[in-house]
């Protein structure tokens, strides 16, 4: 069946992370009624403990020759920032995913994927601006950060980011990276230890407080007349011809008993269920795999909060000021999204930043967290219609779902409302 312009008047969204809620918000902009379901509540998944960087300048495809070479060198070392546990060989799905990832890690494929990402990255800040313009709560969680400070123990290490910035700029996405004398860096961010001997500035980017921002976004969707229903696990999506339905079970609370079944119909369904995207999308022809590149984070007290995020590329650790604490995030671990937290990974992140920071109590950790970067083997998200014109998917943004969630929602809402896929998300066809 063909869906006509303006025919979709109601949409059910599965997943109250940044992607699902942004999609709901932008659908509301078009006058479409939304109901968002989440098995827990807003920001229960990856959208909670991430680094909160809104950095479209750095949003690039993960598969690339340097990442592959680095990954192969580090892969089986438990303390390395990229880790695949030996037990992963028993998971044929993961082995196949990593093989496809490796095949995509060529300069030529990186460039093709980058051309596609440039088009959505251009909308990233505009889509945030629309959402925060009249919303003090959301605006209060989103900060301009001029600049991000990037730190190295050896001045020779800075060249790699300078080269990467040039390569990304050549691909049509301007990145401004400038030298920063180390004394000036220490004046701005006194927590840089004497071990940090060289620094760069990354300009023109933003950061946010992830749990607060996503909670404010959920509130905005509700205030604008939508419903966000936590405690409902959706198990099946059905295309019933003239309507689509989400079917699942309630975990209890707000007038529903645990185990009560839920069967909710709307004109369309959007699957934005993060690392679990394939479970329900596969029956609608989505074959591209989403796999968890798990990351870890925690927060620690700081004597003096830095003016913006700090980045240590060699240990692949991001530090973001969240109120009076510093969130420290890092690690890329390919393993089942629901495997328990591995405390050795937290220890590895702590060990890697301890020599780089001073006036930061790394032993007073709170909110230790593990979450999934929903990664695809070609480094591109999945956004658009599936084999059913009533069932859409939005996910697989890997390292950059916070940055691209609002742009994804804005462009997908246009596709759902008009029945036409905007050119700028055409390359993210979920049926590729
Ligand atoms: C350590 C780390 C640091 C990161 N740093 C950054 C960063 O600085 N900048 C950036 O742009 N990105 C960053 N990311 C990536 C970013 O966090 C993710 O790409 C993004 O949060 C994905 O959002 P999502 O809405 O797709 O998924 P999620 O936030 O995981 O949301 C999916 C939701 O679906 C729900 N759900 C799943 N299955 C069901 C079901 N069957 N029924 C009902 N509900 C269901 C879950 O409860 C969850 O709330 C980072 C990730 C990690 C791990």
UniProtKB/TrEMBL annotation:
Keyword Oxidoreductase part of the UniProt annotation: yes
Domain FAD dependent oxidoreductase, chain residue ranges per copy: 11-414
Keyword terms, alphabetized: Oxidoreductase
Any single Pfam family the record assigns to this protein: DAO
InterPro entries linked to this entry: FAD-dep_OxRdtase, FAD/NAD-bd_sf
Membrane-crossing residue ranges in chain numbering: none
Domain of life: Bacteria
Name of the featured protein: D-amino acid dehydrogenase
Matches recorded under PANTHER family: GLYCINE OXIDASE, SARCOSINE DEHYDROGENASE-RELATED
SUPFAM superfamilies listed in its UniProt record: FAD-linked reductases, C-terminal domain (SSF54373), FAD/NAD(P)-binding domain (SSF51905)
Entry keyword Nuclease: no
Native organism: Tomitella cavernea
